[in-house]
Amino acid sequence: MLAMLIRRLIQSIVVMLVVAFIAFSLFQFVGDPINNMVGQEASAQERAELRERLGLNDPIPIQFMRFVGNAAQGNFGISYRMARPVSAVIAERLPATLELAMISAFFALSMGIGLGVYTALKRSGVLSNFIMTVSLIGVSLPTFLIGILLIYIFAVELRWLPSFGRGQVVRISDWWTTGLLTPSGRASLILPAITLGLFQLTLIMRLVRAEMLEVLRTDYIKFARARGLAQRSIHFHHALKNTLLPVITITGLQLGTIIAFAIITETVFQWPGVGLLFINAIRFVDVPMMSAYLVLIALVFVVINLIVDVLYFVVDPRLRATKH
Amino acid sequence: MTITLRAVVSGVAATALALSTAVSAETLRWANVGDSLTFDPHAQNHGQTHTISHQVYDSLIYSDHTGAQTAGLATDWYILDDDPEVWEFQLREGVTFHEGQSLTADDVVFSFERALQPNSDMRPLINTIVEIWAEDDYTVRMRTDGPNPLLANNLTNLFIMSREWAEANNVTEVQDYSGGEENYAVRNANGTGPYRLVSREADVRTEMELFEDFWGMDQYPLEVSRIVFTPIQSGSTRAAAILSGEIDFLQDPPVQDVNRLQAANDIVVRNAPQNRSIFFGMDQGRSELRTSNIQGENPFADRRVRQAMDLAIDRNAIQRIVMRGQSAPAGMIAPSFVNGYEEELDRVTGTNTARARELMAEAGYEDGFSVTMTCTNDRYIEDEGICQAVTGMLGQIGVQVNLNARPNSIHFAELQNGELDFYLLGWGVPTLDSHYVFDFLLETKTDNSGAWNFTGWSNEEFDALSRQLPTETDLERRNELIAQAWRIAQEEVVYLPIHHQVLNWAMRSDVVMDVHPEDQPMIKYLTFE
Amino acid sequence: MTTEQTAGDQPLRPSLWRRILDSDLLYSFLRKPVVIVSFVLTVIIVLAAVLAPWIAPHTPFDPASLNLMNGFTPPFSANEFTGDTFILGTDSQGRDVFSAILYGARISLLVGFSAVAFAMILGVGLGLLAGYKGGWVDSLIMRVADVQLSFPAILVALMIFGVMRGVIPPQQQDQMAIYVLILAIGLSDWVQYARTVRSSTMAEKNKEYVQAARLFSVPAHRILLKHILPNVTGPILVIATIGLALAIILESTLSFLGVGVPATQPSLGTLIRIGQDYLFSGEWWITIFPGLTLLVLALSVNLLGDWLRDALNPKLR
């Protein structure tokens, strides 16, 4: 167990280094950073001086080492666009994205499991088939279009829900703000969370359904039936429990995807999270911000992967047995 | 974990849901596509940044919604009779900054010196100033490099900071990126303006509230006591936000939604010609274009080709379809309120595809040529749509245009590096005088002139005329020079003007505010019906 | 076939085509009207897209053929200036929406199919290699997969576009955009194939029939191709079908973020992006018709994939 953990940790560090290198290369590819830092009329001498002070004349490996060193301490430099430390801006915006991601993951998970179980048990029911087909519409329409349609219906026509922003936000501590504690904050979460979660919902629902169908056919369930256990108990205690492992894995892995795909949802709903920050960074060629975002997303993924691996290990005794 | 509910930062939709019309009459919720980039008044020469700063900071002089120069912190300004190189500004007395400091001439001197630093983006506007000093506590003088009768025009966005505050907060320098530290002035402001900055979250929300000790309490309506500014990037979301009553004032409704907004009974849309003209530039100075199939010669260098392109563009169709009527087709790169504007020059070239083809043939391009057109897709109203339309129209005379539309950050970087053959540009004339256009767009590109002339066009006669303007004090003679210069540029078809933009401001129907030609709403003027 | 006969007990399972004939695939197909409709719709759209140059009434990709004054003509009605009529109306540039859909579907399908093919070849190849070889090869490939997974499709595409912007000269960027899209979408999708194939390969390679083949010194590539690959064809086909729908949607999302194909040669996604600006102002047809086409296409393909998965899974019958 410990050996596995250490091995996975080392692998994760290598992954992070590779990502850091890609993020670092952005600085080399995307224009001369000096142009972003000085006024249009700065002289060649002033530029050269700034270049020297920023260490842009050093060899690439040294610059990369410095980048990694700084990144490890959370220092990604100053955003060209916002003239503020990148890490501070990201820290401010992260709660908005995480909250949205969590809520939509929760939405996707609860609805997905519920509908998945239902459609598996009532496999050939009319409603089941209807749900299966409708759910496909959710994944067959681009996210941004779903978002816009939701805004059109619920914000413009019905005027039930806000069309943009986070609503009233409460600061819980220095590093966390939440919209969950105010009515307008909760109302603002609904449309973006649905937009973002719809795709995952479909995925989870179909996964649960498929796994359930498989489990229901196993001898284990047949024996349970033969023993005369109640249907309900069989379905939820025996069958569902056994389908949850892959569901946990997929949901865990999808959490990172949700955070990344939040870029689109955040753009449509003007949600003040890191995704919107990233899109703006691309528009303004704000390289420090872009590279920091990439490293951050990679970190989220690596950490989630690690957690999922460990969970798997803990949950599934067979894996422990075979690995030893 | 102990949860301390401190500092309830109110959110965008706090009072938003339109179900309750009990919105505080004094709060103005204002939205626009882009945010202010910084509150440091000298770090960026950028429209929306200045617009927001105008609520918090004052300039010596500002231009009001009629375009007239109006007294801000200066009550009077003039060139000294005995020395045409020296401007004198009389300052308003009894002005206090938001944090209590009194405004004196020393603050003005400090602010100008700060704006002249290398890191300052405002330097190009005032780099003719060679010396600035305080005559007494309320008199400032500036010496320019040669007589500069138009200096005052360049000061309308030059904001005045407090020296004491700047020194106390270590912001005497404009943001220096090598320091790795955040500049205090980026998110904090201490101006003399009507509104005090309360909270600032870049890209998300900026809140300002009325400054009770504002010097102009008796001069302006000041009916808004609190401003909540929110940038919203997506056009549809912006339109949705005002339709659903989540905002009170939308500075830039998408053109296609103007009709729908007008039809809504709780919204009014006010419009006015904007101080900005849209046009195409062609690199005619190079011996060969970078992106053309024609090698060894530059088709744009031939005036007949430029004329043909001018004839091929149907500006009225662009106005009607692409702009939904929200533009004024143009023949010159200066709107009607600029000194030197002539209706005759602004008359739109009639579309004549047959004649255009003849001209192409005469120039030796009967088979046409290809070229890449570079456009912004997030800067001007319907910029990408305009470019697409022109692509089609030029295709009809054999000019095969490859359209490359991208964000303005990239567009302007490449443009300023002189890398573009055929590009879209918009230009405003903040000084309201044609010389500004000549100086930036038409004079031969050197270190001191033609800063935005990327066409490679260079005309000695034109340069000679234009360079007399700054020091010519006889106005009649000066206007004559301007007219001559315009005629040369028009004759040569240096640029292909498309239209002058029209500004639309959408607001709650009880909000009254005149549209400002430079798209700078000044909330101090706003009243409620 | 009964449930007891799962893959494990069955040496040398028959090939996919064999199973199509044997295993009631056709029968199951004919019994499901939804699936038949999906199939027919997919075929119609694909055919219409392929034949676009011959059946489209206009050539929407030729800017010179457009008349701007035709802009915003509603469906089935004559334009007030030119008197021209268009079945599904025109967009902001006077482009015939029907023709634009046909040509747009062509680009979307081209990007979709190519990206899927690219992802499939890459993913299956690497998955087989990783699963069969194991050890450090497996570790390396799966770590690369992890790195790649650290960057979801959108980020991969945005990064590739950023790099390409630096590498490709501006005048060729538009022509290259479609290849960059294929590369970006393909690269973002191979991991799924690799993971599936790897796990199947790992499971299969210890089975008796593969062990037996090894004993007879059958070369590795033959074992992989002849014995292991046919067993994973089903899952791969399912992933590919759903991947096709995903690729088409991803393409439209990328163009929403401004990195897709140029607006002068719009795909379905680009058409929707351009059209959505006009949704509130009443010109619904510009975005609704391409949107519907995309929906029908993606939905049909998804339904086919869905059915295929169930039909190919012997445990579910």
Q: What structural class should be given to the helix and strand makeup of chain B?
A: alpha+beta
Tally the beta strands of chain B.
20
Name of the CATH architecture of chain A: Orthogonal Bundle
Considering DSSP H and I runs of 4 or more, what fraction of the residues of chain B is helical?
25-40%
Shape verdict of chain A: globular
Helix content of chain A: over 70%
- What's the SSE pattern of chain A? HHHHHHHEEHHHHHH
CATH topology of the domain at 275-501 in chain B: Dipeptide-binding Protein, domain 3
InterPro entries (chain C): BP-dependent_transpt_permease, MetI-like, MetI-like_sf, OppC_N
Transmembrane segments (chain C): 34-56, 107-132, 144-164, 176-193, 228-250, 284-308
Protein name (chain C): ABC transporter permease
Organism (chain C): Natronospirillum operosum
Quick recap of the structure?
The complex is a heterotrimer of chains A (about 325), B (about 525) and C (about 325). Chain A is mainly α.
Q: Can you give a write-up of this model?
A:
Chain A is mainly α and 324 residues long. Chain A contains 13 helices and 2 strands, in the order H-H-H-H-H-H-H-E-E-H-H-H-H-H-H. Chain A has a single domain (86-321), classed as MetI-like (MetI-like fold, Orthogonal Bundle). In chain A, strands 1-2 form a two-stranded antiparallel ribbon. Chain A is globular. Chain A has helices at 2-29, 33-37, 44-53, 60-72, 86-121, 126-140, 143-157, 183-216, 219-226, 231-269, 274-283, 287-315, 317-323, and strands at 169-173, 176-178. Among the domains of chain B are: 57-178, Dipeptide-binding Protein, domain 1 (Alpha-Beta Complex); 275-501, Dipeptide-binding Protein, domain 3 (Roll). Chain B contains 15 helices and 20 strands. Chain B has helices spanning 47-56, 105-115, 123-126, 163-168, 235-243, 258-263, 303-312, 315-322, 343-346, 353-362, 383-395, 408-416, 434-442, 460-468, 475-491, and strands at 6-9, 27-32, 61-63, 69-71, 74-79, 86-91, 129-136, 139-144, 195-201, 205-210, 226-231, 249-250, 267-282, 327-329, 369-376, 399-406, 422-427, 495-508, 511-512, 527-528. In chain B, the strands form 4 sheets. In chain B, strands 2, 9, 10, 11, 12, 13, 14, 15, 16, 17 and 18 form an 11-stranded mixed sheet that branches. In chain B, helix 13 runs antiparallel to helix 14. Chain B is globular. The model of chain B is unreliable at 1-24 (pLDDT under 50). Chain C is an all-alpha fold and 317 residues long. Chain C has a domain at 104-316: MetI-like (MetI-like fold, Orthogonal Bundle), CATH 1.10.3720. Chain C is built from 12 helices and no strands. The longest helix of chain C has 37 residues, at 97-133. Chains A and B meet through helix 3, helix 5, helix 7, strand 1 and helix 8 of A and strand 1, helix 5 and helix 12 of B. Chain B: One of its GO terms (molecular function) is peptide transmembrane transporter activity. Chain B: Keywords: Signal, Transport. Chain B: Residues 1-25 form the signal peptide. Chain B: Residues 71-446 form the Solute-binding protein family domain. Chain B: It holds the Pfam family SBP_bac_5. Chain C: Keywords: Cell membrane, Membrane, Transmembrane, Transmembrane helix, Transport.
